[in-house]
Amino acid sequence: MKKKFGTVGAAACDSQGNIAAATSTGGMTNKRWGRIGDSSIIGAGTYANNKTCAISATGHGEMFIRAVAAYDVSCLMEYKGLSLHEAMDRVVNDKLIKIEGEGGMVGVDAKGNAAMIF
User: Fold this and answer.
1) Which residue, of 28, 36, 44, 60, is most buried by count of CB atoms within 10 Å of its CB?
2) 7, 23, 25, 46: which one is catalytic?
3) How far is CA 116 from the centre of its chain?
4) Distances in Å between the alpha carbon of 110 and those of 14, 83, 85, 99?
């Protein structure tokens, strides 16, 4: 295989409503030395809160950091009452687009509802 693809993400919910997210990435090709991507920044590429959701994201890391994208999904659910799908759609297809970012997310809420937006 000559091409490499780098991000692996997961979001899980157990039978008691505890949720977790994990994100692993090889980073972007030809990245600057010392670059820190969104995967390792809680709230940018990965976030989990038992009240709302667990999110794992992939895409233009710098834009996910600026948007605090994964955390923003949780906030939209908690403060505006949006569903997991609605909150993810707003962040990926509105907020990120406005700052010229692109990517996607997988997520699960505490009720076990799952969503994927790209």
Assistant:
1) 44
2) 7
3) 10
4) 8, 11, 13, 30
